[in-house]
Amino acid sequence: MAELNFTKLNPESHLLLDQPLLRLPVELSRKNFKLTAVHVEHDKKHLLGALKATANDSFSGKKDPSETLESLDNMINRMKNLKRKMEGFHEEEKTTHRQTRQRLEHLQDLYQIPSLADVKYDEWSRIRLNRLLADYLLRNGYSESARALAKEKSIEDLVDLDVFVQCHRVEESLRRGSMQECLAWCSEHRELTRKTSNTLEFELRLQQFIELRRKGHLMEAQQHARKFISSNVEHKNPEVQRAAGLLAYSPETKVEPYRTMYSKSRWDFLANLFLKTHHELFSLPTRPLLHFALSAGLSALKTPSCHSKYASSSSNASSTTTTVCPICSTELNELARSLRHVQHNKSSVEYDPIVLPNGRVYGRDRLLEMSAKVGLEEGRVKDPTTSEVFDISQVRKVFIS
How far apart are CA 235 and CA 201, in angstroms? Predict the structure, then answer.
């Protein structure tokens, strides 16, 4: 019965790691809806005003019939453009709905698996591992590798390829010293970020001002500051004041904070700020999901003895045992060193345990058998971890309470 409870699958605990799988489609649908409403409202306001003005001019005789027809043609063309935009938004919405359906079915499959020992759980876990690997590749800029993996494993609808490809493209453009793509992204998502404490667009405009000042274009820099920077004086007064002070210092200055503002490292700051803004907007975790899964798994397996100087044969040449602990392996030992170990409520001990003078506990039969195999004389035992040899009279029996 205990074994059955141990292997019983708890879907809710698994879904803690998979929340972004459903959050992103919801955020994309919300973005799509808001952008659609903005375009419709903007064109509706323009068309109604233009139609009213054209009708009044036509009735009053201010425009001849050819001019009226030209105005009507312009309005028709504008409505056709709006229709094309709406068709594009509709296709995006259909894609989002298809992905959401696939993701819900993938998560629902977990509730049909009764046990961790079920072969279906291995299949489901393999799909999730492929998702986590694709997510890691996308976040590190390996878009083509992630796309190939998703295609090979048929998980395209479970991986956010387009979102991360666009994100990486904007990030790389900033690191190269170009702001055009990021400004376009800010313009497209302005309605979504208006209510947040987002400083990305202000920092981009400030960087444009810095670049104009770096090139010595003082008049253009002042005009740019009046248009894009001075309007933020109420919320960004210290930054606006520093920007004004920048006019008095050349790019070669050693005076802070102007030396830092001229520094090329600001491009990395902007790229990181964009990533933070992008992930917050779409409810994405800042770290790869693979990191969370590895941290949880390594901590669950780690014990206090995993990093002792007598850890195992893989990390201690004098040890005569062969460990099956993955944390003690050469591949994972260093990776798990800085992680905490969890507190286990249940533990298992060998039959007929005994304690050696150095405090280490082993099963009596296994210890005597191993000591005989290494050629020790009768009445002597060897610690398989530290290689210390003791007289059998020094061994004490352990009673578990």
Answer: 14
